[in-house]
Design goal:
The chain is an alpha+beta fold. It contains ten helices and 19 strands. The strands form four sheets. Strands 1, 2, 3, 4, 5, 6, 7 and 8 form an eight-stranded mixed beta sheet that branches. Strands 10-11-9-12-13-15-14 form a seven-stranded mixed beta sheet. Strands 16-19 form a two-stranded antiparallel ribbon. The protein is elongated, with a radius of gyration of 32 Å.
Length: 412
């Protein structure tokens, strides 16, 4: 067991490579070497002693504990600038899918040596910032960016706001990192070198749930709208912004920070009740995604619709994207969310399905397909055809296919 007297506060730097798992072994090895070279060169140019960092590797990145607390201004400013420049040189003329792109976070907090690296609140905090949905969204929304930087509130207040680094306060955008499943919530600041804060803010703004409702039969737009609004009113959720009405499908974006657990629990219950009251003959597939793009909800709703086609005794099937499941379902104890009632849908993209009213989703019956009927092959003893040719003779009337024998058993 580690000595508790070894607890101390230090700078903590976490780094993660973009789409590392999608590369093959040789590409991963190349990226690891390129990352190590870029970080070492950037640290040297920023006047930092990389050799003194205590690094906990993770394959697709690392967590570094930096004892020199005076290194904070250089880490926030010049180190990131130099790292971005080296990544730009590495990525130049590379295919977009082959580029080395990073998320990195910085925090000053407590840490304690442990069997597999470091423990305590500091390493947890910096890694939660690294996993912030806003950091992922910004990197995805700026395909030409080499990295996105996230700093904790203590780093921002003590270094950036005090003008102790070359990066100005105006370059950062404030975000709130909420990870209910991890029992984590904190303020942080995000920036992309060379990109205006307004552009980053647009991508890092509060995300929201996007839903698509897809009836399995014709229903008028007014009736569907009535069902939807009645269900949201009963659940105590603000009326959603209708995005599009594509044929019978209705896509909507909920107000930012609408509680996901409330939608996936109480609202689904009231949706079933509204269908029973206003359109009992209608069954609906619901797709739920997180972000701003309706396309993600449509894709998930498609999986729910295919599942609904094989379930005859439920008016609603809901499918949620992988990030919605991680955010609002997994480990939730909220009313009616029922985490154990979800199972992987088994189709791309990653999604989970639930049939309200079932403790576990049933396996839907296979889709019925029409099969061409082939004539059966002639069998021995079956009469075939009105006219047949047999052993040089022509026979009118049915002929029995098979071996012929005379009354003594001899073949004929």
């Amino acid at each position: 067991m580690p000595d508790q007297t070894e607890f101390s506060r230090a700078l903590l730097l976490a780094v993660d490579m973009w789409r590392y798992g999608a590369r093959d072994g040789w590409q991963q090895a190349e990226l690891q070497q390129a990352l190590s070279d870029a970080v070492s060169a950037a640290a040297g140019s920023a006047g930092l002693d990389r050799a003194s960092w205590v690094v906990q590797d993770s394959g697709d990145g690392f967590l570094a504990r930096i004892e020199d607390s005076s290194a904070e201004p250089a880490l926030v400013g010049r180190f990131v600038r130099e790292l971005d420049a080296r990544l730009e040189r590495f990525n130049h003329a590379r295919h977009p899918e082959k580029r080395l792109r990073l998320r990195l976070s910085l925090h000053h907090g407590g840490s304690l040596p442990a069997a597999h690296g470091y423990a305590s609140d500091g390493p947890v905090h910096v890694c939660r910032l690294l996993d912030a949905e806003q950091a992922r969204a910004v990197l995805a929304g700026l395909p030409d960016a080499n990295l996105v930087q996230v700093v904790s509130q203590p780093i921002f207040d003590g270094c950036v706001r005090q003008r102790l680094t070359e990066v100005s306060e105006a370059e950062f955008t404030r975000i709130r990192v909420d990870l209910p499943a991890k029992n984590f919530s904190a303020e942080a600041w995000i920036r992309v070198p060379g990109v205006p804060a307004a552009a980053v803010s647009e991508l890092a703004g509060p995300g929201s749930l996007v839903l698509e409702l897809r009836p399995d039969s014709h229903v008028g737009a007014d009736l569907l709208d009535k069902v939807v609004r009645a269900s949201f009113t009963a659940a105590g959720i603000a009326a959603p912004e209708m995005v599009t009405e594509d044929g019978e499908a209705l896509t909507m974006s909920l107000p930012a920070r609408t509680p996901g657990e409330l939608v996936l629990g109480v609202w689904l219950h009231h949706l079933r009740e509204a269908l029973d009251a206003f359109a009992p003959e209608v069954r609906i597939a619901v797709g739920v995604a997180f972000g701003r793009a309706p396309a993600a909800a449509r894709e998930v709703a498609g999986g729910a619709a295919r599942f609904l086609a094989g379930v005859d005794d439920s008016p609603v099937v809901v499918a949620v994207s992988g990030d919605v499941h991680r955010r609002f379902v997994a480990g939730s104890s909220a009313r009616m969310v029922m985490p154990d009632s979800y199972r992987p849908l088994g189709t791309g993209p990653e999604s989970w399905v639930r049939v309200p009213g079932y403790s576990v989703p049933p396996k839907p019956a296979p889709t019925r397909t029409e099969k061409a009927v082939s004539p059966a092959a002639p069998r021995i003893g079956v009469a075939c055809g009105p006219v047949s040719n047999f052993e040089g003779g022509t026979f009118h009337g049915p002929v029995v296919v098979g071996a012929w024998h005379d009354n003594r058993g001899a073949g004929r």
